[in-house]
Amino acid sequence: MLAALGIVAACSREMVPETVDTRDSNATTVTVVAKMAGTRTTMEEGEGSFSFKWKAGDRIALIEGCPALSYDACETYKSNRLTADAEEAVFTVNLEERESLPGRLSYTAMYPPHEDNDWEYPLGYYNEHGQLYLGLEFPTIQHPSVNCFDPKADLLLSKAVYMDRRPGDEVQMTFEFARVGTIVKMVLTGLPAGAVIESGQIDFGRQAGYHLEYYPAEMLVKGTDGTDAIQFDYTHLPAGGLVVGQDGCAVVWLRCMSGVSRVIDLQLDGVTPGVQSSWFKHRKISFRALAEQKKLDFMEGGLTTFNVKFSNPDVENPDPETVYYYTNPATNGTNGLTVSWPASDDPDLYTYEIFLMDEDDQRHYFNAPLTLTPDGTRWEAVIGQGLSAGEYTLYIRAFAVPGKVSQPDYLECNLDIALPLHQTITGGMLPETGYQDYNYEFSYQSITYGYRNMYYSTGWNASPSREQTWAFWTKNPLHLGTVLVTPRNNNTAEFQVYASDEPYVDGHPHESEEPLPYTLVYGNKQFQADGKAYLLIESRESIWLDRIDFDYYH
């Protein structure tokens, strides 16, 4: 069987010199038998079992190479396409004439061939140690059918067959195939009956789509890099998407790498016929929150089935991306951490549950009252009093009104709880003199800053020309508190301070963004950043700055 190992560094790929073959012609045609009935590719679900068939139009690739640790070249040949469905497929492969052949040959079969799967790099190549690699790739965009995964995402590999010389015409070669990765059956329930799922995206909390490298000599598959999310698209189907059954159920078939997942982050895009409107649904399920040690196992060569339930009627959960954080939680029982999320106008929403989970999977509950902001747009709660610094995961769960059988899933958002930090930046810290309209950056105590049109000696000469905008900004996200800017020559000089949850591009404020208000503290300007992630100071006013002081926490 094939073993899926952890991520390893990608090795350099280079073709190696070939040896000379003096025969007049070594072209040949071989017959390849795909052994192991039920390998590919049409899936039919019966009573508690599945059957698999090769499908008309399928073809394989045959790699003619050499044993590992040899520097002889390899070539890839594609078979004919099948003309009919079959449980045990027989392919014909034409091996073209080659000017050079190694003394001992290896043959490995794989599905699908290179061009059928739009792979980016060659199937056969060698690393700097002379080891033979075969390139594979799990597509990150898949096009399943109603009852089967995307054939182009179904990676099959054979054991290598070694021969002392090239086989003659009409020789039959038999290969035993194994499936790389896992078949995924995702059952969706609670969807609008008759609705059409056009596309979606799923993140298992780990890399699911990989570039792979296969070592035939060791029968090992190793991932080099990849992406977290798999996108699936149904717009190629006759109905323009996957039609939800009258029971509110739909089944999505996917293929991914083996491994363990503790999170499912699923997004669906669809339409409702007759309504002429599109809809979007999002569920993020954390097994850590639901039960300790619960997880999804994606077994190599196996089938993994799981359900994702959408509430009916829906109670829309707060999106974790819009949860806001204020003040510092780690103050030994004084302030705590204020969290805020959008209010829902759904009449079926009853209440929320909130807790933190630490790195040891220990829960921390809080008897924090939930309060609605005066404008009715956001909920707030204060949690985390007395927690030590560390990494935590915030869980929010929305509950439907009593009597509703279906309840929403937990949503999670990671956050760091840190002790308050203070940073002082003075003019002498700038590493070099700036030039007009050039952006520079420097790092100090793990924070990276950007600046433009700022010169220094004993203090900063910020933009010596009123025609040039100067700017100073943070380049990595922080939770900001207060910001105190100390001009040297004029305490009321005109400069603006901005704070945002989004990074600033080249030191320019976002469109329509308003500067922060300030108060004068001993003649200096103090700004309240309210937990925003990024800081920006800019002006056309030419002034000297002594220092910038701000409180923050990661």
What is the helix content?
Answer: under 10%
Structural class: mainly beta
The largest pleated sheet is described as:
8 strands, mixed
Overall, the morphology is globular
How does this structure look, described?
The chain has 554 residues and is mainly β. Strands 2, 5, 6, 7, 8, 12, 13 and 14 form an 8-stranded mixed β-sheet that branches. Strands 35, 38, 39, 41, 43, 44 and 46 form a 7-stranded antiparallel β-sheet that branches. Strand 9 (124-126) and strand 10 form a beta hairpin. The two termini are 46 Å apart. The model is unreliable at 1-23 and 118-122 (pLDDT under 50).
What's the SSE blueprint?
Elements: E1 3-5, E2 28-35, E3 42-45, E4 50-53, E5 61-65, E6 75-78, E7 90-95, E8 105-111, H1 114-117, E9 124-126, E10 132-137, E11 141-142, E12 156-158, E13 161-163, E14 171-179, E15 182-189, E16 196-203, E17 209-215, E18 220-227, E19 229-233, E20 242-243, E21 250-256, E22 259-261, E23 263-272, E24 277-286, H2 287-290, E25 296-298, E26 303-309, E27 324-326, E28 337-342, E29 349-357, E30 363-365, E31 371-372, E32 378-383, E33 390-400, E34 411-417, E35 421-426, E36 439-444, E37 447-452, E38 454-456, E39 460-462, E40 470-474, E41 479-487, E42 496-500, E43 518-521, E44 524-528, E45 534-539, E46 543-553
Parallel strand pairs: 1-18, 2-14, 11-19, 15-26
Antiparallel strand pairs: 2-7, 3-4, 5-6, 5-8, 8-12, 8-13, 9-10, 10-17, 12-14, 15-21, 16-19, 16-20, 16-23, 17-18, 22-25, 23-24, 27-28, 28-32, 29-30, 29-33, 31-32, 33-34, 35-46, 36-37, 37-40, 38-39, 39-46, 40-45, 41-44, 41-46, 42-45, 43-44
